[in-house]
Amino acid sequence: MFDTVLEVSGLNKTYRGKRGTHATDDVSFGVGAGEILGVLGHNGAGKTTLVNQIVGILKPDSGTITVAGVDAVSHPAAARRLVSVQAQSNVPITGLTPRKAIELVGRIRGLSKNHAAERAGRLLNALDLDEWSNKPAQKISGGVARLTAFAMAAVAPGKLVILDEPTNDVDPVRRRLLWQQIRVLKESGTAVLLVTHNVMEAEHIVDNLIILDEGRVIAEGTPASLAAPTRNRLTLKLDNCTSKIPDSIHVVSQDARETTGYIDIDEVAFITEWASTHCERFSLTPTSLEDIYIALVDRKEAHA
Ligand SMILES: Nc1ncnc2c1ncn2[C@@H]1O[C@H](COP(=O)(O)OP(=O)(O)OP(=O)(O)O)[C@@H](O)[C@H]1O
């Protein structure tokens, strides 16, 4: 069990306007010290609106947010001091180098000069950024800028770190280094709220997750508990089949060429034989969190 750092309860936020979007709809969850909570959701699901309320940029219409015992709705500045954020768009650091930018945030967040320099150096090295550490910000790539933004959030992390799509633009090798550093934050007892579209990556790092859709939490739990109902199912992809898809395949998506669905494990022999005869290619894989996520969001849309 984790000691709760962030507690969100019954949160509601509607953007006024012609459509009156209910962007946060009765959202409740908690994140504990040393816990990584993944917040998954499609574009427009309400992730940024949620983060902006936690950090005090937006005021909720109703509900409560508590950060390490501080009421973040009534006292946003006090709560904000306990939180570091890597926002979806990087903070401009023009005129600085990655090293200077990370050190500066460390100093602003209360580290001594030596400690800020030591933390910046360690993060730059761990993320394999030494080569760019002293280059002017105007000359660094998007991926290096993204990793620098992560290091700025991690240099003096506080009780809670919020990472909004931290791996965008980052190459696969440094992406792994980034995940390692997120684990280091967790191990040091920081609560981490990881906002992402990337379900496959999140599956390997989060302790718990919530899935947001149209502002609502439509599923929550550990990756294993969300996957449990599908333990006896396999995901099937079929390419260019020339015969009607058998009823024992539960189709999730289909276009002229490709069909994706799932089958019960005891149908494997029959489906393998059918697909080898009637389809150009097919694959059977264990059901991933991404499959579950898509099925959950699609099911909700089908019932709308
Ligand atoms: N300032 C605003 N005024 C009106 N509607 C808004 C505003 N900001 C966001 N919305 C709407 O609120 C909903 C949630 O948007 P939000 O940006 O929180 O989603 P998101 O999950 O962060 O999306 P993405 O993954 O694309 O960043 C969307 O329907 C969006 O169009």
TrEMBL record:
Q: List, in alphabetical order, the Gene Ontology terms for molecular function in this entry.
A: ATP binding; ATP hydrolysis activity
- Report the domain of life of the source organism: Bacteria
| Gene3D superfamilies the record matches | P-loop containing nucleotide triphosphate hydrolases (3.40.50.300)
**Keyword vocabulary terms for this entry:** Antibiotic resistance, ATP-binding, Nucleotide-binding, Transport
Give the way it sits in the membrane.
Answer: Peripheral membrane protein
Q: Write out the GO cellular component annotations.
A: plasma membrane
Pfam families attached here? ABC_tran (PF00005)
Query: Cellular location of this protein?
Result: Cell membrane
Query: Main localization of the protein?
Result: membrane
For this chain's UniProt record, which GO biological process terms are given? response to antibiotic
Q: Where is the ABC transporter domain?
A: 6-239
Name of the protein described by the UniProt record: ABC transporter ATP-binding protein
Q: Which organism is it from?
A: Scrofimicrobium canadense
> What taxonomic ancestry is recorded?
Bacteria, Bacillati, Actinomycetota, Actinomycetes, Actinomycetales
